[in-house]
Amino acid sequence: MPFKAGLELTELQNMTVPEDDNISNDSNDFTEVENGQINSKFISDRESRRSLTNSHLEKKKCDEYIPGTTSLGMSVFNLSNAIMGSGILGLAFALANTGILLFLLLLVSVTLLSIYSIYLLLVCSKETGCMVYEKLGEQVFGTPGKMIVFGSTSLQNVGAMLSYLFIVKNELPSAIKFLMGKEESFSAWYVDGRILVVTVTFGIILPLCLLKNLGYLGYTSGFSLSCMVFFLIVVIYKKFQISCYELGLNATSPILSNSSEHEHMCKPKYVIFNSKTVYALPTIAFAFVCHPSVLPIYSELKDRSQKKMQLVSNISFFAMFVMYFMTAIFGYLTFYDNVQSDLLHKYQSKGDILILTVRLAVIVAVILTVPVLFFTVRSSLFELARKTKFDLCRHVLVTFVLLVIINLLVIFIPTMKDIFGVVGVTSANMLIFILPSSLYLKITHQDGAKLTQRIWASLFLALGIMFSLVSIPLVIYDWVQSGGSTEGH
Asked: DSSP string covering 131-184, please?
């Protein structure tokens, strides 16, 4: 944020330098103010004085330095928790519509680009002293910046909540049918996914969301990550237990009844282009978004430095890359072209205790994670409206209205790929590509020494804009063509 060049003497006298690892408090570096001039060993001209004073004022307006206490290993675990989410369930569908080689290229590209965007974010944080994304946006672009960051992070969190409740809508009916000893084709009003998701929302999630603070719910992210690791193990195990040929024999399609056609469908494909290929990149982007959590994790890192936090992000993203690719490839090699946008839903229980266990574990994990995301969205909304003082009536009303809106979206959205597609091309694109590069370019716009870095950041920004301009029309076109109701190719 630019400041006026003509600073009054009283402003300089009242200015305090925050205790930050990036700012020295050595008396030789910054001594005192006399007769309107700064007496400093290293400051000789007016431009340098203005630059230092502006830097101090900017940091004063942002977060004060508080030493972190979290180890590097725990920070890696926390960031991995932030990255991991429901996006993992849609990656096999993305692979089935791109082919193995194209999917691997996209996955590697998004992983590397996400790491680079974290680098830009850390540089911006170091330059401004901000440890919260919204504050960083406000510091650099003023109120519009704060609004854009708030909108992007809130849309990302709402998208995550929608995908989690969609899992409940898809998976809970199958689990109940298994426990009742009914076939998958059994239908009754009490096993309708739409009714069950509303029941779970207002019977379990609403009371948790009405709590004044998170409490023990803050620890559910570790449980959620454990459930996803368990899911990956089951996916790998089932690949060697389920035969693609048996899936073909059980199918009723006349195409599958032809052995030569079926044999062709059970062969892996390496490069594919079809109407659903457009969902691959948004789904991968959705799976890797963790940017709102990066700065809070950075602020808690023990002996923090930009280099150390970059190491944390590199390890976390590499670990998630391996986990994502293994889930996608083994899920695809189990069902091939028949895979759905919710991979877990493709596994039929039919007496399989292992599938029931992983299904119940994932359901419990997502039910407990929804309130955590909801707290973030609601608190950001109150902060934006400057209504930070707790008011019970407002607290209950906002909670109820938001959950009603989210449930209506879950009921009427036909498939998870639509959630991944919309959120991927909007908020995920903003948080990964557009916002970090824009913030960096704004902060360094007068720094001639960083010309090369600014060129790379500009190309990164252009890539994000191009991603939006290409993906959004294609997603809309697919909706128009398919009516938003098909999973197939």
From this structure: -SHHHHHHHHH-HHHHHHHHHHHHHHHHHHHHHHHHHHHHHHHHHHHHHHT--T
53: in domain: no
Residues 235 and 154 in one domain: yes
Q: Predicted confidence band at 205 (pLDDT cuts at 50, 70, 90)?
A: very high
Enumerate residues 6+ apart whose C-beta is below 8 A from 24.
Answer: 30
Rounded-to-integer distance, Cα 437 and Cα 155, Å: 20
Q: Torsion angle, CA of 434/439/440/443, rounded to 10 degrees?
A: 160
Dihedral, 457, 460, 465, 468 alpha carbons, nearest 10: -150
Cα separation, 418 vs 485, whole angstroms = 10
Full residue range of the structural domain in which residue 164 is found: 68-482
Q: What are the residues facing 39 on neighbouring strands? A: 32
Residues 23, 140: one domain?
no
Do 281 and 371 belong to one domain? yes
Same domain, yes or no, for 159 and 210?
yes
CA 389 to chain CA mean position, Å: 28
Give the pLDDT of residue 105.
Answer: 96
Mean pLDDT of the chain: 81
Structurally, the chain folds into a number of domains equal to 2
Q: What is the CA radius of gyration of the chain?
A: 25
pLDDT higher than 80, residue 5: no
For residues 274 and 423, membership in a common domain is answered with: yes
Residue 447 CB neighbour total at 10 angstroms: 11
Distance CA 157, CA 406 (A): 11
Q: Which residues contact 179 (CB under 8 A, 6 or more apart)?
A: 356
Minimal CA–CA distance to 167: which of 424, 429, 361?
361
Q: What is the pLDDT of residue 256?
A: 46
Confirm if 38 and 12 have CB atoms less than 8 A apart: yes
Q: What was the pLDDT predicted at 63?
A: 60
At 3 the pLDDT is 38
Is there a single domain that holds both residue 163 and residue 281? yes
**Widest distance between CA atoms in the chain:** 93
* Count of CB atoms situated within 10 Å of the CB of 323: 20
**What DSSP string runs through 346-413?**
HS--TT-HHHHHHHHHHHHHHHHHHHHHHHHHHHHHHHHTT--S--HHHHHHHHHHHHHHHHHHHHH-
